[in-house]
Write a structure and sequence with these properties.
10 strands; TIM Barrel; five-stranded parallel beta sheet; alpha/beta
């Protein structure tokens, strides 16, 4: 019976990591789902405790946030990425809804020759097909930010999987695009939810820099934001920026120039 369970799990994992047509929520039998649940909780002993990720303010001798370094060390085996594995800078944008600035952001990235990752929720992809297609056509990476922007560690196995693979299938069906990076909504994860994402063929990418840029009614001062972003540059930095921010759209070109002036290049 044990060998049968492991074989079922291996077959299910192959389907999940393959991310083909067999990825809709009801494709796996309930028996296999139960086996997967049992193996994940009983054999691996993974915690369901919610972790609210943040990089913190303490930095090491390389200007890397200690919180990002520690998260990478602690959860890297579960597919978490908090820092790049080289010296290059990664710009990432969370796309919860469209506020009229994404086209300008894309214009700047094209002008500066920089590729970014856009973490998109399904509703955004449904409502803004021209922008999403432009991201793809101009060589940017589309990341999975889930179907409904729910807290992943609060979800059961089935729902957690559907939040990832439901949107994965949507992008395959509508854009012929296969996503491989997942960003958990609100930066909330658990060991268990990381493992589910990994089973689905995803790495979970968080960040090593973020700042308060998401409130459209209280936008950061452009000069202060520029200084904050550029001065935070470090090897392998993953910047989290929000595309709803007017400040980000206004200063992005200066940000790129400033980071390059510090001796860094973008991936």
């Amino acid at each position: 019976m044990k060998k049968q369970a492991i074989a079922a799990i291996a077959a299910a994992a192959a389907l999940l990591s393959g991310c083909g047509e067999a990825l809709r929520g009801d494709d796996l039998s309930q028996a296999v789902v139960e086996e997967l649940k049992a193996e994940t909780s009983d054999l691996n002993g993974l915690s369901h405790e919610k972790i609210g990720y943040g990089q913190g303010v303490e930095t090491d001798e390389y200007n890397c946030p200690v919180g990002a370094v520690n998260a990478q060390d602690q959860y890297g085996e579960l597919g978490l990425i908090a820092l790049g594995n080289d010296d290059k800078i990664r710009l990432t944008f969370d796309q919860g809804y469209e506020n009229g600035y994404t086209a300008r952001i894309l214009d700047t990235l094209k002008e500066k020759g920089v590729k970014a990752t856009f973490f998109v929720v399904q509703d955004y992809a449904e409502k803004n097909p021209e922008l999403v297609q432009r991201m793809i056509d101009e060589g940017h990476t589309i990341g999975n930010h889930s179907v409904n922007h729910l807290s992943m560690p609060e979800l059961d196995y089935d729902t957690c999987r559907k939040e990832i693979l439901g949107f994965h299938q949507y992008m395959l069906d509508n854009y012929d695009y296969k996503m491989t990076l997942f960003r958990p909504p609100m930066g909330e994860f658990s060991e268990y939810s990381l493992a589910v994402a990994k089973e689905c063929g995803y790495k979970t990418e968080v960040w090593s820099f973020a700042y308060a840029d998401w409130d459209t009614n209280a936008q950061p001062d452009p000069d202060e934001a520029l200084d904050k972003i550029v001065s935070a540059a470090h090897p392998g930095a993953i910047y989290l920026l929000h595309s709803v921010s007017k400040t980000n759209a206004d200063i992005l070109g200066q940000v790129i120039d400033g980071i390059r002036a510090e001796g860094f290049e973008f991936r």
